[in-house]
Amino acid sequence: MELVNxxxxxxxxxxxxxxxxxxxxxxxxxxxxxxxxxxxxxxxxTSGLKGTDEKLTLAVIGIQLVVVAYWLLVLPVINYGADxxxxxxxxxxxxxxxxxxxxxxxxxxxxxxxxxxxxxxxGIGLVFLIIPGIxxxxxxxxxxxxxxxxHLEPIAAIEKSWEMTxxxxxxxxxxxxxxxxxxxAGLICFLVGVFISAMWISASFATLYHxxxxxxxxxxxxxxxx
Length: 226
What we know:
- There is one protein chain.
- By secondary structure, the chain is mainly α.
- The chain is 74% helix and 0% strand.
- The chain has helices at 14-27, 29-44, 58-73, 75-90, 99-102, 108-128, 130-139, 143-149, 154-164, 169-188, 190-222.
- It is globular and about 60 Å long.
- Residues 219-223 have low confidence and may be disordered.
């Protein structure tokens, strides 16, 4: 199987996104692997703090508050930074690992608020009726890229993601379904397969964003819009 095909271009389709994502995965494998390992480590930090003791002592409550604060105020910065690095890999732009942590000194409030608002909107949709939650999740999938790539504020990023995914919601949905199958295949191949699966999925969604973004810009240029 040919891993890198110079003639392959990103496209806003399921096969096109996964195909180009697969190509860029191997082209930037080392960087993608480092990013994925750091994210996995960051997400695992609180696993040892989640006690199984049901008795609510002050210590347990304190630990739970630390975990919640970490998931709300720290982890989103690293995850959003990872999304930006995968996008840079898709674009063949310079990748620097320090971008993972740049959000702590730049754009921090927008990252935290955008992550909270997106999770709240999707969560409310899932609580009341599952289908609206799925729709909202598909339509807001580009919020992290827009906050990091376009430096949009949270509300503007949500509105822009809604606009960008108009006509592409089914593509996002089927990409998410395929992602589940890719993860299952990765689990069958144990730890190495899981990391490759996760990197491929991240690269593929970054490809979809890039394809829709560049497509929209091209249409604006053709229409003579600056």
